[in-house]
Amino acid sequence: MTTFSDLGLSASTTEAVQQLGFEQPMPIQQEAIPLLLSQQTDLVALAQTGTGKTAAFGLPLVERIELSLNMPQALVLAPTRELCMQITRDIKDFSRTQQEISTLAIYGGSSIKKQINALNRGVQIIAATPGRLLDLLRRGKIDTSAISTVVLDEADELLNMGFQNDLNAIFDTLPKHYHTWLFSATMPDSVARIAKKYMNNPKKITVGTKNAGADNVSHQYLTVKPHDRYMTLKRLIDVHPDMYAIIFCRTRRNTRKIADKLNRDGYKADAIHGDLSQNQRDRVMGKFRNKSIRLMVATDVASRGIDVNDLTHVINYELPDDLESYTHRSGRTGRAGKSGVSIGIAKHKEKGKIRKIEKTIKQKFEKIDVPTAKDVKLTQLDEWSDQIKQTDTSPISDLMPALLDQFEGMSREDLTEKLIAFAWNKKGTKSQPQQKTHGHSQTIKNGSEPGFERFFINIGKKENLNPGTLIGLINEECRTGDINIGKIDIMGSFSFFEADNNFTDKILSAFQRNVKYRGRGVNVEIAQPK
Ligand code: AMP
């Protein structure tokens, strides 16, 4: 077994790594660290996020810093503010057992004055986004004369995000006596061009196959009609009560819409997209990191730099337009040796795209079925069974002898069935496993009868609606006469009705098709709790 000290790290850095709980170097570290410690060389390393790449360059970097020299000696360029901050945190960690290396994160969108003050106090390693760095270089605020290492982290993302010109300008500003270490998950032409133009005979390291998805991510997809997408998402969440996931949408508008809908339906979710201020973004990230929300809906761009290690799932609510984004999305799970699942919700006609992604990631997708209402029910019953087993019985234990008499003669099976059915009926059938607080799942009760769902509809007496016409409308739109309709309350400009909850999704999706009633667009939703 290779250890960190085998890689040639100093005793104090090895100790720091041990304190961080890293037991064994990850493959990219095994390859990169000895090379970067022993040779003055340029390097191109193909590695996904989550493979331990930050330590692969960060540990050799820490060893190279001349502690007595209080000048910038290394520049790390990264695509997002979050990543810059993560890198500075990691470098501080790696140097915790020695005199602290002064490390500064520099990024746009926050006070340049403060950054200039910090630079004036002296820094040894700078982790920066290209735009702000270039600004400071042009203002002459960074002494580049002692820079001996430049790291490009997530180079493909840097270029995807349009930093090409900034990078060129930065390279042109720096004195020519540094080595460049380039890390990238993928190797598109744009990255190859940068490597060719600015690097000198770089050594190459590839961990796993080129462009391959992380090995510990399994890929699944299901095909749905567009109007079933949201229902499918909810079902997926319902059958994975411990889901901790990023849900990817293509547009900012959709991230907001989906997060809002999920919240309305009782799932705790938030959205992260380019319209948020940095403060809002930090707040959302904070909640996601400490798991007070476990579902984050994000655009591709906004999700960059999110460094959460234990995501169970990545959900592609919409498949990405370009294939490489899929690699980035799915690489958000399966990090740091953990396994994860990436699920694509595809339209029927997107099967070709799935095949193309398979070629890019060199892994097969498993086709799965949309979880059924029964699957959801079973998941919840499983959860309840666990909760029942953990229930504290002390408050009633002294009454048990009397209570037991009541159930005399019933078999264990009958009694269990009755108790669970009793709990089920009491709670209502809308499972909201994501609403878990303190280990108990809360459920929303919207006042419906057992086995029935209560719906809101935005038409009422004003539109001359009566129970007969309402039932007619539901049957017509759902193209069936089988739905058992319960209680109906017709109000002035809206109404409520109850219907067999086996048909909940059918009803909701039927009314998503621009239904009109007497000229008015009809909207049906699950009724809010009373
Ligand atoms: P990165 O690819 O740099 O984003 O690293 C992914 C995660 O793996 C980070 O949270 C690191 O702290 C962690 N990590 C890096 N190297 C090791 C290691 N050798 N053993 C265990 N965890 C590690």
Under the CATH scheme, the architecture of the largest domain is 3-Layer(aba) Sandwich
> Whole-number average pLDDT?
86
Strand order within the widest sheet? 3-4-2-5-6-1-7
Report how far the terminal alpha carbons are from each other.
Answer: 61 Å
Radius of gyration, Cα only, in angstroms? 28 Å
Structural class: alpha/beta
Bound molecules: adenosine monophosphate
Strand content: 15-25%
Main sheet specs: 7 strands, parallel
The number of domains is 4
Shape: elongated
The helicity comes to 25-40%
In DSSP terms, counting alpha (H) and pi (I) runs of 4 or more, how many helices? 20
What would CATH call the class of the largest domain? Alpha Beta
DSSP E strands, number? 20
CATH names the topology of the largest domain as Rossmann fold
Low-confidence stretches: 209-213, 429-445
CATH superfamily of the largest domain: P-loop containing nucleotide triphosphate hydrolases
Descriptive account of the structure:
Helix content is 40%, strand content 17%. It is elongated. The protein has four domains: 4-206, 3-Layer(aba) Sandwich (Rossmann fold), CATH 3.40.50; 217-371, Rossmann fold (3-Layer(aba) Sandwich); 374-389 and 397-427, no CATH class; 452-526, Alpha-Beta Plaits (2-Layer Sandwich). Strand 18 (516-517) and strand 19 (520-521) form a beta hairpin. It has a seven-stranded parallel sheet with strand order 3-4-2-5-6-1-7, sandwiched between helices. The protein has a seven-stranded parallel sheet with strand order 10-11-9-12-13-8-14, sandwiched between helices. The protein has a four-stranded antiparallel sheet with strand order 16-17-15-20, with helices on one face. It is of the alpha/beta class and 530 residues long. Residues 209-213 and 429-445 have low confidence and may be disordered. It binds adenosine monophosphate (AMP). Residues 22, 24-26, 29, 49-55, 307, 309, 335-336 line the site of adenosine monophosphate (AMP).
